Amino acid sequence: MILSATERSYLYELLQQTPPIRPDGRSNKQFRPIQSHIGFLDNSNGSAKITLSDGSECIVSIKAEVVEKSTTNELVSVDVDVSGHRDDTSFILNLQSSLKTLYLKHISSESLNLTTKFAYKLFIDVLVISNYSYPLTLMTFTSYLALNNTYLPKITSSVDDKEIEEQPTFHDYEFNKLIGQFPIVFTVAIIGKNYIIDPNIEEMEVSDNGLIISWFNGKPISPIQNVKLNDGNLKSVKPQLILQSIDLVKEVANDVINSLNSAE
Amino acid sequence: MSIEIPSFTVPGQPLCPTLQKTKDPKLVHKFEPGNGAILQQVEINNKKTSIISSTLVGKVQIEEILEDEKETTDGQDEEESKNSQKEDNEEYNIKKFKISVIPNLKNQYNEFDFINKETTNTNFATNLPKEGDIVLSRVTKLNLKQAFVEILAVEGSGNVLTDSGIGSNGHGIIAPGGGSGAATFSIHQASSDLGETFKGIIRSQDVRSTDRDKVKIIESFKPGDIIRAQILSLGDGTNYYLTTSRNDLGVVYAKSYNGAGGLMYAIDWQTMVCSKTGELESRKCAKPF
Amino acid sequence: MATTIDRRRLLGPANAKPLVFAPLPEEYQQKLQIDASKEDDIESQITRTFIKSGLITNANGSSFLELDGNIVSISVYGPRPIRGSFVEKTTLSVNLEDNTGLFNDLLNKKFCQYIENNFLSVINLSKYPKSGIDIFINIISVQDIDQLYLKLLSLVSDATTLAIIDAGIEIIDLVVSSFDYENNTVLSYIKNDEIVGILGESEDSIENLSKIIEKTQKKSIHVKNALTTHLISTSQ
Fold first, then answer.
1. Is B193's CB within 8 Å of C131's CB?
2. What does the domain layout of chain A look like in residue ranges?
3. Which residues of B touch C85 (CB under 8 A)?
4. Architecture, CATH, for domain A23-158+166-262
5. Which residue in the set C85, C95, C173 is minimally distant from B12, CB to CB?
6. CA A81/CA B187 separation, integer angstroms
7. Poorest-pLDDT segment among A192-196, B199-203, C131-135
8. Which of A62, B40, B277, C192 has its CA 20 to 30 A from that of B97?
9. Do A235 and C217 touch (CB under 8 A)?
10. Could you read off the pLDDT of B166-208 as tens digits, one per residue?
11. Can you tell me the distance from the alpha carbon of B113 to that of B123, in angstroms, rounded to the nearest whole number?
């Protein structure tokens, strides 16, 4: 999106005020309203869709496969597809690397464990159908919903197969819910002395810098990094602002988790 | 002076404030950033002030901006003085200086550069043509409506690019995705068009200021001619727009018979003569003196 | 593809290949022991560092940096003219070439993105309209890709600063990066206390970020002094 010089300086001025005046009237810690659907893909073990007020839309599908633990080193695989971006661009690869490190680290292998030899491997496919702002937050929120509503087939054979050559067998229709905590990522835009959560496209365009902060198990965690929210206006930020942004995330994170948990 | 300006700087080093008092209470020195310097806002004791700081490694050069030059940029001055207290302008004498940083010349090309070492800056990175600059350019191709040129040098600052940014021996590397060139263009063409110079266009109506509609490009320029021209605008993505509609602008160097013949001299503003054969060819010539 | 052939100058034979040396056998690849106290001692690290600018004459600017088994060289090309639509400010592209075979795609892009973000905020972009700057990072040797990759990143960032200066491209301040081993975090500073880049990949929570910032900031001031001294001593 391209803003004219006047629009840009007008927006920048507004967002510089204390408190910042955001073009859609939100406060600095307020998210855009989201609409969610869960479990609508019959062929997946878990699925979710989130639509944002600006028309951004993300679908996540989670599938599981039984793998031998000795031959598989990673139990989570993440695939990212954002419409309008080629798969090999740095934008996509960076999103993918952020998500992959996040889920590999924080989806516990115990929750995917089947027997002493076998385990589930999760394939998380993230598809962003339309995208008008930095999509990482949207992607992790949708993945959070999908992971939270993932049902894996219940094992009926013996769990201890150390001595026996046996493939695990599963119950015909009973499922176990995937248990665990899942991480989410917040995007904070820094503009002047202000910091705003969940920036929309106009706010991104005028922001001085962006920050992504991950959240897991009630704590801010790494990866934390700065991201390029626009092409030409990046500026340096004071350390204080980064710390304040983390405090902002701390303030809102539990409410976000609670509302995501209550989604049905 | 109350603050001493450093003589040698590295990027980020503050050089001086924009306004500075002198011993004479009526005289104020005003500094403007030139090449290698940038205006920056800093906060000192919770007060915002603007300073000039360096952006290159090199020697600091201070030139006074003379009064007659000031008048040509008067419109700009008035706007600026709104910020720096208008009444001050009337009370004080303001002496203006341009402060620039001249990078150390240790590039292999510069060993041969004996001329004007003080004023010419051959480090290409700071010499991209700006609006209003006079440039030397070479004609590459013509059509009925315009002449295409490549820009060789900016007058008073030296070559635009010593090596077109592709590496000094023509074997520069290009990123697999097309690198920075791919940002605005498809990958295939970006990587096949390596090593191009900055290009320009002289439209037929910009060749001269009289009888603009009767200009014939073919009677004004020929491929291979070296042209002195002025930058009209930054143009589009590919081309700068140039003009030669001034007496001192136009062809300065040309050879007869499309470059096959001898060197030619201008005998009037639209004719050149070959010194060996006496052949006359038409060109839009620059006034030599 | 026919369209990508450069027809305008004489090139080498089409089937020419660069010389590649076989990798060293395992017993010769000695891994340096990581000593946490050594990672924190920035002053001795600086004395162990070798820097040289301008070695690659084919580039507009280049730098070479060596520390503790990490060897990187950076070359900068540009500002080179770009084609297509008009851009008011220069575009930056960063590319990483890995000669060690230790980098995967994701780590490669992570490095590139970090360097790009850092330098987008310091290069005087509006000075170079209609042009692009290409930065090539060449990783020659790596100390420890598993635990010290962010240390390598901080070195790459410092080397890029030097290469950009060598190219004569205007930047508003020196970017200096410093790495905190304990928390596996790298931060890049300008003007002593402003952050242009942060990348934290620690195992624990980041509640102690303010301490990390304090620590890396102190380190970065040492690095900045060293870089400034180097620049002045080699240029004068």
1. no
2. 23-158+166-262
3. 184-185, 236-237
4. 2-Layer Sandwich (3.30)
5. C173
6. 21
7. C131-135
8. C192
9. no
10. 444 344 555 555 556 555 444 433 333 445 678 899 999 999 9
11. 11
Residues of chain C neighbouring A239 (CB-CB closer than 8 A)? 193-195, 210, 213, 217
Give the chain A residue nearest C125 (alpha carbons): A232
C218 Cα to chain A: minimum distance (Å):
13
| pLDDT score recorded for residue B188 | 39
Each residue's pLDDT tens digit, C106-130: 888 889 989 998 999 899 888 888 8
Domain boundaries, chain B: 1-68+92-105, 133-165+195-282
Which fold is adopted by the domain C39-235? Ribosomal Protein S5; domain 2 (3.30.230)
Residue C146 contacts A where some CB pair is shorter than 8 Å = no
| CATH architecture classification, B1-68+92-105 | Beta Barrel (2.40)
pTM of the model: 0.83
Interface partners of C (3+ CB pairs, < 8 Å)?
A, B
Spell out which residues of chain A touch residue C205, defining contact as CB-CB under 8 Å.
Answer: 219-221
**Interatomic CA distance for residues A154 and A179, integer angstroms:** 13
Give yes or no for a contact between C188 and C176, defined as CB atoms under 8 angstroms apart: yes
Give the whole-angstrom CA distance, residue B65 versus residue A98: 53
User: Which chain C residue has the Cα nearest residue A228?
Assistant: C117
Distance to chain B for C163, nearest Cα, Å: 12
**Rg (Cα) of chain B, in Å, rounded?**
23
Q: What does the domain layout of chain C look like in residue ranges?
A: 39-235
Q: What are phi and psi of B264, to 5 degrees?
A: -115, 155
C95, C113, C220: best mutation site toward chain A, by most A Cβ within 10 Å? C113
Given an 8 Å threshold on Cβ–Cβ distance, is C109 in contact with A231? no
Report d(CA B166, CA C63) in Å as an integer.
Answer: 17
Angle, CA of C151, C51 and C34, to the nearest 5°: 30
Cβ-Cβ pairs closer than 8 A, A with C, add up to 98
Neighbours of chain B (3+ CB pairs under 8 A): C
Are C231 and B57 inside 8 Å of each other by CB?
yes
> What's the rounded Cα separation, in Å, for the pair B208 and B227?
13
What own/partner pairs with CB < 8 Å and gap ≥ 24 does A242-245 have? Answer: A242/A190, A242/A211, A242/C195, A242/C198, A242/C209, A242/C213, A243/C209, A243/C210, A243/C213, A244/A195, A245/A188, A245/A190, A245/A195, A245/A211, A245/A213
Q: Which residue of A has its CA nearest to C212?
A: A239
Contact check, Cβ <8 Å, C196/A223? no
* A96: nearest CA partner in chain C: C106
Nearest to C137 by CA among C121, C152, C122, C117: C152
Distance of CA B115 to the CA centre of its chain: 18
Interface predicted TM-score (ipTM): 0.84
Q: Does 2.40.50.140 match the CATH number of domain B133-165+195-282?
A: yes
Mean pLDDT of B236-251: 90
* Cβ neighbours of C206 in A, within 8 Å: 213, 220-222, 224, 246
Q: Do domains B1-68+92-105 and B133-165+195-282 have the same CATH topology?
A: yes
Whole-angstrom distance, CA of residue C117 vs CA of residue B143? 43
